[in-house]
From TrEMBL:
Cross-referenced InterPro entries: Homeodomain-like_sf, HTH-type_TetR-like_transc_reg, HTH_TetR
Species assigned in the record: Sphaerisporangium rubeum
PANTHER family tied to this protein: HTH-TYPE TRANSCRIPTIONAL REGULATOR RUTR (PTHR30055), MYCOFACTOCIN BIOSYNTHESIS TRANSCRIPTIONAL REGULATOR MFTR-RELATED (PTHR30055:SF238)
Start-end of DNA-binding region: 31-50
Domain of life where this protein originates: Bacteria
GO molecular function annotation: DNA-binding transcription factor activity; transcription cis-regulatory region binding
Domain HTH tetR-type: start-end pairs: 8-68
Matching PROSITE patterns: HTH_TETR_2 (PS50977)
Keywords, in A-Z order: DNA-binding, Transcription, Transcription regulation
Annotated protein name in UniProt: AcrR family transcriptional regulator
Pfam family, one: TetR_N
Length: 196
């Protein structure tokens, strides 16, 4: 893109380009040059908006975490409606059907990114920790509504569901799992805590 041409929503344009690269080529292909080329802008655009490439990646991850936190509010709003299994399957598909799996790979592959994220998110694996909290909050709401048994161990169920969801969607080179496969896994995890 020529110098002097205004770019609307630069951050979102760069984030969207990074996500496309992550999905298509994986974290090892993600460079500042690849992002700006994918975004169709000059390389200097990224560096005018972010201190360095790791600052850009940190903001990308934090933006995706904010999206999970917004999804958490929407998920809690459906507590008491539909089926617990269907709601959970939908939530896992929404989290992992996006770029979350690739973002987790990115976090684990870049030491500086992990260090910067630890400064603002000191515990857990960013993205997975927030997704686990989202599922735990939803399960608690369903338990409070009597749609899960009183003994439902939320602290075990939530990370189990996130781990299973992550594994289902982990292979970026194959097609995503069928919705029925996600429902089947969720049903298996929560079977013992659904009232008869």
């Amino acid at each position: 893109m020529p110098t002097g041409v205004a770019i609307r929503d630069v951050r979102e344009q760069l984030f969207a380009a990074a996500e496309r690269i992550l999905r298509r080529d994986g974290p090892s292909a993600l460079t500042s040059r690849a992002v700006t080329t994918e975004a169709g802008c000059a390389k200097g655009v990224l560096h005018r908006h972010f201190a360095d490439f790791d600052a850009f990646l940190t903001e990308l991850v934090l933006d995706r975490i904010a999206r999970i936190e917004a999804q958490a509010a929407a998920l809690c709003d459906v507590a008491g409606t539909g089926t617990v299994t269907g709601n959970l399957a939908g939530a896992l598909t929404e989290v992992f059907g996006t770029v979350a799996v690739a973002v987790v790979s990115l976090i684990t592959s870049r030491d500086e990114l992990r260090a910067r994220l630890r400064a603002v998110r000191p515990s857990g694996v960013p993205v997975l920790a927030e997704a686990t909290a989202m599922i735990a909050t939803y399960l608690t709401a369903e338990r409070d509504l009597g749609r899960l048994t009183p003994h439902a161990d939320i602290a075990t169920l939530a990370p189990t569901l996130i781990g299973a969801g992550h594994l289902l969607f982990a292979d970026r080179t194959s097609t995503p799992p069928e919705p029925g496969a996600v429902v089947k896994v969720v049903a298996g995890v929560v079977a013992g805590v659904l009232p008869e």
